[in-house]
């Protein structure tokens, strides 16, 4: 699998989703405050039940029992995504606040951020927001899916029955991402691919099946079926383990070409899984037992089926450069996931350490990943998405500290620490995305999907601060970035309907916050010197 985001020889077609309105459930400030407080309390030890037996093994990845419980009905998270693409679910995990639609999403998801924004007692009518489309995140250049097809074309057509599934899935996602207009022409390709996704697939295992399943999982997330995609990518991950895709094999039994393809497939799968888990707030995947090396920094034309040795890695950008950097970032994201799911509000020292890890990751990036450097179009988009993902990770890591300060009616201090890191990342994210869009005419669906996703992540942080403390010294900057995001979302709306809906939310916030009476804010503290 390469990271090639270049030409894609399929018709350019995109779905125009149907708009459906949902009523959102607001969470009051007292509920948010109680949640924050309870999440930091550890349950008292019960010596009669919790004492470890001598035969028990304690795993460092296992979360200790606490008295923190979710304040919702467990049965609310059952879901049904079997209907057509009705756009009532949000695959990005952001604008779907109805638990009957979204499935379970953890505290680091965008849905949690939306609920917190709704909890602010400023009487804004946010409980009737239209819902959009979907990260991965779980997150990743559309080129990554296309790259799997590129790899498959370098090999003979598989004879295990996977070809119709793989071929039509590639056509479906290619049609989805490669046009600038909203059409439904990718749907027939998906339906044809789904026809070949039978129970027989569970009784087989091959590289081609892994590719097909993972591509379809990513397609389903982008098509607002995030839970279906999440389940499917779990099947793909299990199948990958079953065929030993996570292990390194050597000559002479395995050729360098075959091994390199397996590396690309495995690590692309890992990035997809990690991104989806972060997006939806679900436990991180383990790399225990994985010894396969990272792919080489080479282009497709640099490797051949009959080669005896891989050539030296190139010093410049290639189609795998972004994938290599994505893997390193995803490993940090997994550590962030563990911390957030274990503590909800991370330990201060651990958050600072993880922030430093992301900073060191930035410093170690090759110079061609600098934002001021313009690469070839098929390399530039993966680079941009990589950098935007890092901003998103910083926001998600540090956002709980900001929300805790607001929930306890404390000042928003922007001098240093996690709150400053969160706000800085949000500012950088909006500036980077809008700056890039202002210098390119491309509005393809693949670009629009990712740009919209991370604009929402950053803008909701700024909107929360602006609503909470409109007299803060940084308020004009927050308002300026929000307006900038609104303008960018406007330009993305023609190719991605969710962008229009996100724009409408932010416009309503900007308009109605300006009209709120001042007495609503007189108790909001402002940090000195911030």
TrEMBL record:
GO annotation terms (biological process): DNA-templated transcription; positive regulation of transcription from RNA polymerase II promoter by galactose
Start and end residues of each stretch annotated as Disordered: 40-63
CDD domains per UniProt: fungal_TF_MHR (cd12148)
Superkingdom, natural source: Eukaryota
Alphabetical keyword list: DNA-binding, Membrane, Nucleus, Transcription, Transcription regulation, Transmembrane, Transmembrane helix
A GO molecular-function descriptor: zinc ion binding
Pfam families, per database record: Fungal_trans (PF04082)
Domain Xylanolytic transcriptional activator regulatory positions: 229-301
GO CC terms of this entry: nucleus
InterPro entries per record: Fungal_SecMet_Regulators, XnlR_reg_dom
Transmembrane segments: 228-245, 265-285, 447-469, 509-527
Protein's name in the database: Unnamed protein product
Compositional bias annotation for Basic and acidic residues: 53-62
Keyword Membrane included in the entry's annotation: yes
């Amino acid at each position: 699998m390469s990271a090639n985001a270049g030409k894609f020889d399929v018709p350019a077609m995109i779905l125009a989703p149907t708009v459906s309105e949902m009523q959102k459930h607001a969470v009051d400030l007292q509920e948010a405050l109680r949640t924050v407080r309870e999440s930091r309390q550890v349950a008292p030890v019960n010596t009669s039940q919790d004492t470890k037996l001598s035969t028990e093994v304690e795993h460092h990845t296992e979360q200790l029992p606490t008295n923190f419980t979710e304040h919702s009905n467990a049965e609310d998270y059952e879901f049904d995504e079997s209907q057509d693409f009705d756009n009532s679910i949000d695959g990005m995990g952001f604008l779907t606040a109805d638990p009957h639609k979204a499935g379970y999403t953890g505290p680091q998801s965008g849905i949690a951020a939306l609920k917190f924004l709704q909890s602010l007692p400023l009487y804004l009518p946010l409980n009737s927001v239209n819902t959009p489309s979907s990260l991965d995140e779980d997150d990743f250049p559309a080129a990554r899916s296309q790259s799997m097809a590129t790899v498959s074309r370098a090999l003979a057509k598989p004879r295990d029955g996977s070809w119709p599934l793989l071929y039509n899935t590639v056509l479906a996602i290619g049609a989805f991402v490669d046009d600038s207009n909203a059409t439904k022409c990718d749907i027939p390709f998906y339906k044809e691919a789904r026809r070949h996704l039978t129970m027989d697939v569970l009784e087989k295992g091959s590289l081609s099946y892994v590719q097909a399943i993972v591509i379809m999982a990513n397609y389903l997330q982008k098509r607002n079926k995030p839970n279906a995609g999440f389940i499917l990518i779990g099947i793909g991950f299990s199948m990958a383990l079953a065929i030993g895709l996570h292990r390194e094999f050597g000559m002479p039994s395995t050729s360098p070409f075959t091994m390199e393809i397996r590396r690309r497939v495995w690590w692309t799968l890992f990035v997809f899984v990690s991104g989806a888990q972060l997006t939806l707030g679900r436990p991180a995947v383990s790399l225990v037992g994985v010894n396969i090396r990272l792919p080489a920094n080479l282009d497709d034309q640099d490797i051949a089926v009959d080669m005896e040795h891989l050539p030296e890695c190139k010093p410049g950008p290639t189609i795998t450069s972004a994938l290599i950097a994505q893997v390193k970032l995803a490993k940090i994201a997994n550590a962030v996931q563990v911390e957030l799911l274990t503590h909800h509000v991370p330990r201060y020292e651990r958050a600072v350490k993880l922030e430093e890890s992301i900073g060191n990751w930035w410093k170690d990036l090759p110079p061609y990943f600098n934002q001021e450097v313009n690469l070839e179009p098929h390399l530039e988009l993966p680079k941009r998405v990589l950098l935007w993902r890092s901003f998103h990770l910083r926001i998600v890591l540090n956002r709980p500290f900001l929300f805790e300060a607001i929930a306890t009616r404390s000042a928003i201090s922007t001098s240093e620490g996690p709150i400053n890191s969160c706000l800085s990342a949000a500012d950088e994210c909006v500036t980077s995305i809008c700056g890039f869009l202002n210098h390119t005419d491309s509005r393809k669906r693949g670009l629009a999907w990712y740009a919209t996703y991370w604009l929402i992540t950053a803008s909701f942080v700024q909107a929360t601060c602006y609503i909470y403390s409109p007299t803060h010294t940084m308020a004009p900057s927050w308002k300026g970035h929000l307006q900038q995001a609104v303008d960018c979302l406007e330009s993305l709306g023609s190719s991605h309907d969710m962008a229009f809906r996100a724009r409408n939310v932010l416009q309503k916030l900007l308009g109605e916050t300006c009209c709120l009476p001042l007495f609503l804010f007189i108790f909001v503290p402002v940090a000195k010197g911030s």
